[in-house]
Design a protein that fits this description.
single chain, nine-stranded mixed sheet, about 30% helix
Amino acid sequence: MADGYDAADNGKRSYDEAILAMRAKHIKAKKVVHIGDHELILGDCLKVMSELGRVDHIFTDPPYEAIMHAAKSGAARRIRTDGRCPLSALNFESIDAIREQVVELCAERADGWAGFFCAPEGVGRWADAINNSSAKYKRACVWIKPDSTPQLNGQGPAMGAENFIVAWCGSGFARWNAGGKRGVYTHLCNPPTRHGKHPTEKPVSLMREILVDFTCQGQTILDPFMGSGTTGVAAVQLGRCFTGIELDPDYFEIAVKRVTEAYNQPSLFPAEKPKPPKNGDMFAEVSA
């Protein structure tokens, strides 16, 4: 070794880079990054997903419908007064033209759940697309936003919630970890931990709760619209394997940084222990 040069280390890095380049070419991606057991992919999910193997579950925040894109673009012109990252316009196309294709690919690739965030106006459209696929539409869950932006012009009620649609893509009956829990999730839009570089970023706490309810440790979670990597951060924190796909190079690099930081941070969340089965007596009398 001379002047800090390590031939063995340099050779390993070159080998790893060659393997990743081959992987990217194979799955029709522009770039692949491995962070431990997690894989982040720069590319078009419509091209990449057809080249991937099966995964346990898919949870993603795809683009909004066109009508919501117009509304969000108007919101981006407002000046924030709370000192946080300014609102930005949505710099990607709406989901309308590719919704059915996305649903078909997810139904083909997932062995369990597929979840899609959407505005309330999009629930029916997602349900129709799912019902026309091999997946089984299950529920429109609700994310309650206690700190959502008020209707500043005062001409009607502000939006205080967002939906995420869940569909079962596996065989047999649908299975999850939350028993009879209602599909209602309450989390701040702008918690102190918000990264803020993506215009539709979801809270990490929200994604953690969803993954705990719908997935198990060690399972693989795919997010085909990864954005800035919030689902990946939650998956890493909870001991899930994560695969994320993102089309925008800037958001991709943000996601790589955030997932790497989560991977390098000691786990703050205890290992989940399955609840022991509780056997009831079907002949027991029910007291009045």
